[in-house]
């Protein structure tokens, strides 16, 4: 390789460092080396498969552009992984006040250590603890529309919004008021919007390291770290963030992944770092998680975001129309049409967005005005029949306890007195008939009982209802109260 080629490579690295910043350059490009330069192809190498995959996925075009800035004839970048046979291992520099560094290896890739402010050395064969930049591990993509400015607040989401705003405005070193913050709601009611708003606010402030991950991305990152033998680096990167946001926790899968999430959750909370979690159900209803994780999640602030009322749906529609007009100035939806959509499309916010998108598409493609007749035709499939109210086991326990003058704690206890046993059996029976929970899950929610105990209670009450008219009427009255 000629001196001229090495000089061009040095200038290319300078361009790359200027474009991506020092942190990202150190994270992903510090150990990239030039192998050869041909007429239209530049051959580069990196020490690990993980590093190769990441650069190819996220920075391939940028590296090529930087080379073309120095050599316009270059059309292709060929990135390979250096093997131990190709290059001798390089001893890590010895930190001034730490234990002797050991040889860098594929099992503890150096790019993690140097990427996040570590010394570049490894003590006892492990990577030095990083001080990670969230950009470096690539959080899930953020939608620029999902900010606090575009979040419409109503009665059903006031508390969740206030908690998220308070958390987002906190500064590094401030005491954590509630940890974790756990937000749950059905699909399309704003959970992801709130989490991404926190991420945008944190990134804008720049003081705290904020990382937003979907459960799927968390699983992918953890499995990839197992495959590439970089699990220690994965753990440390996560735990070096100041605010960790995990979305759609109900999709977390895999025993080892659950264990890693549990360790990360505990480590961050114990270190005073903020964790925010969103899911489609409360912590106690997440059957895949073990009791310790459910308990830790429930020990913070758990907030439910309820269904949108008609007034809030109308405000959301008005906000979205105003936003659309910034790009389509002639887009106009008459007030009666908006009121009709708010009254008719009741399921979730995504259906509201879908209804407006259809009207916008019709307006732009045909040039015809939006009328009530058009709206009725276009959103016909979004008008869903009213679904029966979902009943929760906690509500069953609360109402049954109140009706029979016992406490909810009595229902969950091991007491066997007659005034507790019968209400407990009724509550178990209602949990089985009014919810989709399995017998083992119901047993767990009633003080950790075996599923056979629940089955006995269900059969007992079924038999009594057929013979005791007064009991049957009582149970029907409880059902009506739960479903109103």
Automatic annotation (TrEMBL):
Map out region (Domain IV, binds dsDNA) in residue numbers: 364-484
Q: Where is this region: Domain I, interacts with DnaA modulators?
A: 1-107
CDD domains (UniProt xref): AAA, Bac_DnaA_C
Annotated ranges, domain Chromosomal replication initiator DnaA C-terminal: 392-461
Q: Where in the cell is it found?
A: Cytoplasm
Q: Where is the AAA+ ATPase domain?
A: 177-303
Keyword tags? ATP-binding, Cytoplasm, DNA replication, DNA-binding, Lipid-binding, Nucleotide-binding
Q: Where does ATP bind?
A: 188, 190-192
- Pfam families given for it? Bac_DnaA, Bac_DnaA_C, DnaA_N
PANTHER family from the xrefs?
A: CHROMOSOMAL REPLICATION INITIATOR PROTEIN DNAA (PTHR30050)
> What does this protein's UniProt record list under function?
Plays an essential role in the initiation and regulation of chromosomal replication. ATP-DnaA binds to the origin of replication (oriC) to initiate formation of the DNA replication initiation complex once per cell cycle. Binds the DnaA box (a 9 base pair repeat at the origin) and separates the double-stranded (ds)DNA. Forms a right-handed helical filament on oriC DNA; dsDNA binds to the exterior of the filament while single-stranded (ss)DNA is stabiized in the filament's interior.
**Protein family per UniProt:** Belongs to the DnaA family.
Q: What is known of its domains?
A: Domain I is involved in oligomerization and binding regulators, domain II is flexibile and of varying length in different bacteria, domain III forms the AAA+ region, while domain IV binds dsDNA.
Enumerate the HAMAP family for this protein. DnaA_bact
Q: How does it assemble?
A: Oligomerizes as a right-handed, spiral filament on DNA at oriC.
Protein name per the record: Chromosomal replication initiator protein DnaA
List the source organism: Rhodoplanes tepidamans (Rhodoplanes cryptolactis)
| Upper lineage | Bacteria, Pseudomonadati, Pseudomonadota, Alphaproteobacteria, Hyphomicrobiales
């Amino acid at each position: 390789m000629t001196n001229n080629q090495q000089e061009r490579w040095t200038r290319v690295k300078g361009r790359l460092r200027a474009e991506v910043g020092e942190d990202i350059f150190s994270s992903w490009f510090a150990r990239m080396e030039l192998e050869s330069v041909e007429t239209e192809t530049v051959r580069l190498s990196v020490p690990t498969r993980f590093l190769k995959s990441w650069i190819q996925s996220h920075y391939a075009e940028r590296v090529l552009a930087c080379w073309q800035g120095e050599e316009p004839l270059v059309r292709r970048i060929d990135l390979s992984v250096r093997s131990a046979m190709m290059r001798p291992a390089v001893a890590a520099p010895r930190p001034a006040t730490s234990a002797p560094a050991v040889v860098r290896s594929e099992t503890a890739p150096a790019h993690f250590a140097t990427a996040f402010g570590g010394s570049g050395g490894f003590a006892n064969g492990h990577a030095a603890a990083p001080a990670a930049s969230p950009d470096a591990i690539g959080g899930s993509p953020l939608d620029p529309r999902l900010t606090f400015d575009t979040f419409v607040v109503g009665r059903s989401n006031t508390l969740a919004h206030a908690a998220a705003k308070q958390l987002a405005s906190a500064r590094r070193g401030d005491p954590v008021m509630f940890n974790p913050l756990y937000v749950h709601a059905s699909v399309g009611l704003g959970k992801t919007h709130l989490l991404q708003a926190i991420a945008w606010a944190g990134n804008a402030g720049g003081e705290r390291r904020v990382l937003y991950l979907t459960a799927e991305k968390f699983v992918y990152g953890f499995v990839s770290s197992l495959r590439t033998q970089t699990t220690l680096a994965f753990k440390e990167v996560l735990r070096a963030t100041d605010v960790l946001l995990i979305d759609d926790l109900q999709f977390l899968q895999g025993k080892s992944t659950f264990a890693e999430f549990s360790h990360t959750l505990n480590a961050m909370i114990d270190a005073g770092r903020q964790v925010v979690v969103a899911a489609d159900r409360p912590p106690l209803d997440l059957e895949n998680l073990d009791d310790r994780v459910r308990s830790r999640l429930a020990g913070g602030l758990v907030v439910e975001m309820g269904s949108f009322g008609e007034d809030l749906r109308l405000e959301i529609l008005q906000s979205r129309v105003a936003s659309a007009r910034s790009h389509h100035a002639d887009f106009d939806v008459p007030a009666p049409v908006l009121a009709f959509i708010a009254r008719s499309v009741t399921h979730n916010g995504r259906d509201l967005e879908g209804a407006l998108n259809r009207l916008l598409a019709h307006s732009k493609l045909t040039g015809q005005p939006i009328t009530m007749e058009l709206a009725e035709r276009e959103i016909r499939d979004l008008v869903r029949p009213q679904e029966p109210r979902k009943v929760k086991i906690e509500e069953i326990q609360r109402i049954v306890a109140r009706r029979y003058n016992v406490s909810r704690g009595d229902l969950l206890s091991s007491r066997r007195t007659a005034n507790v046993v019968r209400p407990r059996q009724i509550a178990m029976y209602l949990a089985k008939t009014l919810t989709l929970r399995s017998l083992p899950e119901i047993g767990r929610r009633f003080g950790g009982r075996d599923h056979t105990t629940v089955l006995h209670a269900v059969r007992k009450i079924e038999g009594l209802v057929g013979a005791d008219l007064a009991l049957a009427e009582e149970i029907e009255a409880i059902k009506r109260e739960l479903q109103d």
